[in-house]
Amino acid sequence: MTKAYDTYREDVAGRANVEDTPELVAYYEELAEADTAALWTVANKIEPWEPVSSSVPVLWRYADLRDKVLKSLELVSAEKAGRRVIYLNNPGRTDVAAAVGWLYSGLQVMKPGERASAHIHAASALRFIIEGQGAYTIVDGHKMTLGPNDFVLTPNGTWHEHAIAEDGTECIWQDGLDIPLTNALEANFYGVHKDLHQAVGYPVNDSTYRWAAPGMLPAGETWKNGYSPLFKYEWEPAYEALTRHAEASDGSPYDGILMNYVNPATGGHVMQTIGASMQLLRPGERTKAHRHTGSFLYHCAKGQGYSIINGKRFEWKEHDIFCVPSWAWHEHGNLSDSDDACLFCFNDMPVMEKLGFWREEAFGDNGGQQPVLS
Ligand SMILES: [Fe+2]
Ligand SMILES: [Fe+2]
Predict the structure, then answer these.
(1) How many angstroms is it from 291 CA to the middle of ligand 2?
(2) Residue range 2-54, pLDDT digits in tens
(3) DSSP label at residue 149
(4) Residue 365 burial by CB count (10 A; 0-12/13-18/19+): exposed, middle or buried?
(5) In angstroms, what CA-CA distances link 188 with 77, 107, 155, 184?
(6) pTM for the full model?
(7) What is the whole-number distance in angstroms between the Cα of residue 27 and the centre of ligand 1?
(8) DSSP code, position 213
(9) Cα gap 297→178, rounded to integer Å
(10) How buried is residue 187: exposed, middle or buried, by Cβ count under 10 Å (0-12/13-18/19+)?
C-alpha cells in the first residue's frame, strides 16, 4: 500500500489542499530520497490555526502519590539515584518526560541525614515544599532552611544540593524544571561538584534576609544575574500578602487574588524561563474561564476547590497538582464557603513573553463559564 501524503488537506482558501495522484506520489518519493519534502503535504499540520497542545489536562492527587513516593525510600538510595524523584509523566508528553508542555515536575523524597550531591545544570529549577522538617538547600554557597509551602529557586547555572538534617523528618517536595525546553533547544549541560558537596559561604537564609523585605531593597547591593537574588520565598509572608491584597482589591475575574513571585532586583520573573505565582480564591469564589498560551502547573497549597479545564472538572485539595496545557480553557472554584483556597503555580510565561508568543482570550459564552462536559 502506498503512503498517503494528503492527510492534512483542508478545503479552505489559503490552506494546502492537494490531492494525491500517482504522479505526485512518485514525485514525493523522489523528494524523500533527497531528504526533502513538499511543504503543502504538511503545511496544515505544522502551521495549525491555533496552538495544538499534545499535553493532556491531568490531576495528580497527593493521596494517591504519597505512599508511592515514600516507597522509593526503601528501594533506592539517594546516592545511587542521584535525586530520588517520582516524576509527573503527562500521557501526551512521555517522550520528553514533561508534566505539561516543556515543563518537568516530580516529587522528591529524602530522609533524615541524607545529603544529595551538589550539581549544576543549564535548566532552571524550583522546589515547592510539601511536608517534613529539617530540609535545607544550598545554592552557590547560600544555605536556606525549608518549611512547608516555601518556594525555593535553584536557578540555571548555580551549584545546588539538598539535604535533611540528622534530627529532621522524611521530607517531600515538588521539583519544577524546564528540562524539556532546555533539551528541545539542545542547550542542556549537567555537572557534578568535584568535591561532591559545596561549602556554605554565607549566614543561613541570608538571601531571604537581604532581599525579601516588603517594599524595600538593600541599598548599594547590585545584582547582575538573570535570576532573582532572593532564593527562598516563605509561605507565611506570601499568604499574608494575598490576604491583605484581598482586603483591598477584587483581583482578577480569571484568577481571583493572584500575585507573582518576582525578582526583587528587577520586578520581573524569578528566573529567565520559569515564572511562578501564588493565588487565593476567596470562600465560594468561582472565576471566569479564559485561555492563553504557555504551560501552567498548579499545586494546591491550602484549602480545596476545583478547576474546569476544557470542559472537564478536576477537584483538588491540599498538595494535589494539576496542569493546564497551552490554549486550554480553564477556570477555578473554591469549594469552601468559609475558608480561602491557595494555588501555587509555575509556568513558562517568561518564555512566551520574551518570544512574543503570549496571547490570552476570555470565554465569551455562557456568562464566561464553560459548560461542564465530564
Ligand atoms: Fe538540580
Ligand atoms: Fe489562566
Answers:
(1) 6
(2) 789 999 999 999 999 999 999 999 999 999 999 999 999 999 999 999 999 99
(3) T
(4) exposed
(5) 25, 21, 13, 9
(6) 0.96
(7) 49
(8) S
(9) 12
(10) exposed
